[in-house]
Amino acid sequence: MLVTSMFVADASVNELWILETIGICDPVEQKSREEKETSVKEHFIQTVTCSEEGRYIVALPWTVESPQIPDNREVAEKRLVSMTTKLQSRGQ
Asked: Where are the beta strands (DSSP E) in the chain?
């Protein structure tokens, strides 16, 4: 018999609504995790090499679907100008 016990003092009410907190996991998510682990292991086995110095070299598994990092240059320049103006008006 498997019994899961939780102390209410350890978890907030909001955390109790998250199913993973109480040990309930979606089997589809579990399978995708297992598939990811399998693909990472396969990538490791395919890319591991040994250098002349005896060190192991492994290529990193980069994701192809990585989102573009936004360019916040305009926001940063506006903040710089406003802060410079405030400091100059205060005489600092």
From this structure: 49-50, 56-57
C-beta separation of 43 from 33 below 8 A: no
Token pair for 19: 């199913």
| Tokens standing for residue 83 | 């802060």
**Which candidate, 73, 51, 68, 49, places its Cα nearest to that of 59?**
49
At residue 56, what are phi and psi to the nearest 5 degrees? -90, 140
Would you say residue 57 has pLDDT above 60? yes
Query: Cβ contacts of residue 91 below 8 Å, gap of 6+?
Result: none
Model pTM score? 0.35
Extract the tokens encoding 32: 């995708």
